[in-house]
Amino acid sequence: MNYQEALDYLEGLNVFGVRLGLSRIKRLLELLDLPQERYRTIHVTGTNGKGSVSAMLESIIRRSGLHVGLYTSPHLASYTERMQVNGQPISQQEFADCLSTIRAYVEQMMAEGEECPTQFEVLTALAFFYFAMKQVDYAVIEVGLGGLLDSTNVIVPEVSVITNVALEHADRCGGTLEGVAEHKAGIIKAGVPVVTAATGIPLEIIRQTAEEKNADIFVAGEDFKAVAVEADLERHTQGFSFTSALLGIAEEPFDVRLLGPHQVQNASLAVMTAELLHNVEPKVDIDAIREGLKLVSWGARFEQVNCEGREVIVDGAHNPAGIKALRESLDMYYPEKERVFLLGILHDKDIEHMLETLLRPNDTVVVTPPQSDRAEAAAELARQVSGRVSHVEAYEDNEEALARSLELAGDERLMVLCGSLYLVGSLRQSLLARKGRERGEAHG
């Protein structure tokens, strides 16, 4: 199997859609000889920030001199981004080879009359198998959806992390905020410490679950806290101080290489988790934490891309909580600057709430549909935007929309590419390609 054949096979599995439950993944992993039990893990869930926290923890563990895997979803440009070892994505050939192995066991399951695993279950098995093959010491595993019935929830981690809980994917997680919280709390295991930034009713549910599982719980704002100090836009870093009376840490200074006030809280979760990890892994010390945060890299999270003389912010904010964090960051770092948004949203999101949070009356907006059958049509999104801003244009073609947005931004305005990752991922690649050509011409 080559990489294209692997992609074709995965696409064929899409017909099964999302089917929550652990029976299929457990059987598949049994056939693979339980690869997920051959290394230690950290499990990360939450409505927003789980990818950033996972990236921070991977960077910290790597700076500790340990071999570390990272499993995240969805990807921006390629499936190979989803599984990395020591910061390097799996190669296309390794991806295809691992999938060939897993496919044989999938076919065995079906021959035995069992259900076919879903695409995400196959990808999860592939990641676990690959990490075992690469003999990692640790793997940071990001939940795909919810937690309780997510296919990653077959591990017993060293620490469970629940970033926050908002009303997202409620249709698959009980229909209410309480239901979503119960699904997130579903990753808590007996005796395994929990780190969280959840508040309100979700925090109550997480506390109760932790108590039932005899798991120690560490809550942001109570057991530890972080205070932003200053940001450096040119270096794409911000400083913060971390305090935990519980750990005997008083205002320890750190820099994190991700911008936005929400990333200070995410970084505090990573620091607390790493401090707990230090109890079982002395190599994960304060120097590794400091270096890991300073060097972390995570695309499309308030990412600055200078292209063709224009300043562009790329952010995969695709739900109300993400949009709120984006707006707060824009107001903090670029309060006066006029903005041109390039925007695409999936129709099953709370579009009205997102637009209300994001837009100012003097903004300019270009809308274009993400590459998904769940995309909101450009004309319909433009109609919803039109009453809120001074100028809106709609383009069916994503590349045309990108070119027009850069043109509208010119030298004076800030361009912001945001919304669905099905749009942001592909257009981020286009921006980076334009930047690469620009650099090549400059050196030519």
Question: TL;DR?
Answer:
This protein is an alpha/beta fold and 444 residues long. It has helices spanning 3-13, 23-31, 50-63, 92-111, 119-133, 177-185, 200-212, 261-277, 286-295, 320-333, 351-358, 378-386, 398-409, 421-443; strands at residues 40-45, 68-71, 83-85, 88-89, 138-142, 159-162, 194-196, 217-219, 225-232, 237-244, 249-256, 303-307, 310-315, 339-344, 364-367, 391-394, 414-419.
Strand ordering within the main sheet: 4-3-2-5-1-6-7-8
Q: In percent, how helical is the residue content?
A: 40-55%
* Count of discrete alpha- or pi-helical segments spanning 4 or more residues: 14
Cα-to-Cα separation, first versus last residue: 39 Å
Structural class comes to alpha/beta
How would you sum up the global shape?
Answer: globular
Largest sheet: 8 strands, mixed
How much β-strand is present in the residues? 15-25%
Label the CATH architecture of the largest domain.
Answer: 3-Layer(aba) Sandwich
Broad CATH class of the largest domain: Alpha Beta
Textual characterization of the structure:
The protein is α/β, with parallel strands linked by helices. It has 2 domains: 3-295, UDP-N-acetylmuramoyl-L-alanine:D-glutamate ligase (3-Layer(aba) Sandwich), CATH 3.40.1190.10; 303-443, Protein-Tyrosine Phosphatase, Chain A (Alpha-Beta Complex), CATH 3.90.190. 41% of the residues lie in helices and 19% in strands. The chain contains 14 helices and 17 strands. It has helices spanning 3-13, 23-31, 50-63, 92-111, 119-133, 177-185, 200-212, 261-277, 286-295, 320-333, 351-358, 378-386, 398-409, 421-443, and strands at 40-45, 68-71, 83-85, 88-89, 138-142, 159-162, 194-196, 217-219, 225-232, 237-244, 249-256, 303-307, 310-315, 339-344, 364-367, 391-394, 414-419. The strands form 3 sheets. The protein has an 8-stranded mixed beta sheet with strand order 4-3-2-5-1-6-7-8, with helices on both faces. Strands 12-13-17-14-15-16 form a 6-stranded mixed beta sheet. Helix 1 (3-13) crosses helix 4 (92-111), helix 2 (23-31) runs parallel beside helix 5 (119-133) and helix 6 runs parallel beside helix 7. The longest helix is centred in the last third of the chain and has 23 residues, at 421-443. The radius of gyration is 22 Å and the shape is globular. The mean pLDDT is 94.
